């Protein structure tokens, strides 16, 4: 595989649609981690691609950062952290997995909002209550 940013696309697609073995093979064959945001891709994947918890766990074991922002790879099309992606794509169980593994709903993306802010903007009480489980805050904040 060439040393270019195209290899990041392959890693992202693998994280979204394939197995941990295929992902590891891409890395072994030269795909560049720095050009990818596979934890975001696994978080955003549609349910028809299967259970993404094993891939997400594997990516964390490989050292991908749980709160990594994606603007360094996606540029102005970045969504922020994997947790922000979970909120935007309504992936509650994936958000729970991220929170259980240390994700923080408060870091702001380059465009100014956090996962918590996004859940508030969308009036998504399911996510706000989920965040409350892991990061208790004053109830009046949730009501605003």
Automatic annotation (TrEMBL):
<dbReference type="InterPro" id="IPR036770">
    <property type="entry name" value="Ankyrin_rpt-contain_sf"/>
</dbReference>
<protein>
    <submittedName>
        <fullName>Uncharacterized protein</fullName>
    </submittedName>
</protein>
